[in-house]
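Hi V.,

Quick status before I head out on leave. The structure for the redesign project is tokenized and pasted below; the design run finished overnight.
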């Protein structure tokens, strides 16, 4: 039986990342919607934020690689875990990380995987910077 893929999205500005089975999927190098005042108070639950993140150059390719890594890990030799935990991170956990986590979840679901998606910091206050 294939393991459930648990995806945690988070903002490193709120708290450290939890332990995961694969290295953190760090979205901080990509353009932050936070710099646009019209998006600052919005979240990845808003389609314009998701569109902004997913059309940033390099993001879709990075997430496709992450999905391949997750599947390779989850189906690797001797793998017997019931859950494989991964995390996507950005600074505040409201824009890039949750948009990335939702995209990874959708790609895995489309391939028949069971996914548990948890947005740790989506409802946290905006980190002013």
């Amino acid at each position: 039986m294939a393991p459930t893929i648990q995806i945690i999205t988070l903002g490193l500005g709120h708290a450290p990342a939890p332990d995961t089975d694969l290295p953190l999927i760090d979205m901080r190098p990509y353009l932050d919607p936070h710099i646009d005042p019209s998006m600052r108070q919005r979240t990845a639950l808003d389609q314009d934020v998701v569109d902004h993140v997913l059309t940033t150059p390099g993001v879709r390719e990075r997430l496709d690689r992450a999905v391949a890594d997750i599947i390779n890990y989850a189906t690797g030799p001797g793998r017997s875990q019931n859950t494989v935990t991964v995390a996507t991170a950005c600074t505040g956990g409201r824009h890039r990380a949750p948009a990335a986590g939702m995209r990874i979840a959708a790609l895995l679901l489309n391939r028949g995987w069971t996914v548990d998606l948890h947005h740790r910091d989506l409802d946290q206050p905006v980190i002013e910077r």
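Above is the designed sequence. The longest helix spans residues 59-74.

G. will cover questions while I'm gone.

Best,
W.
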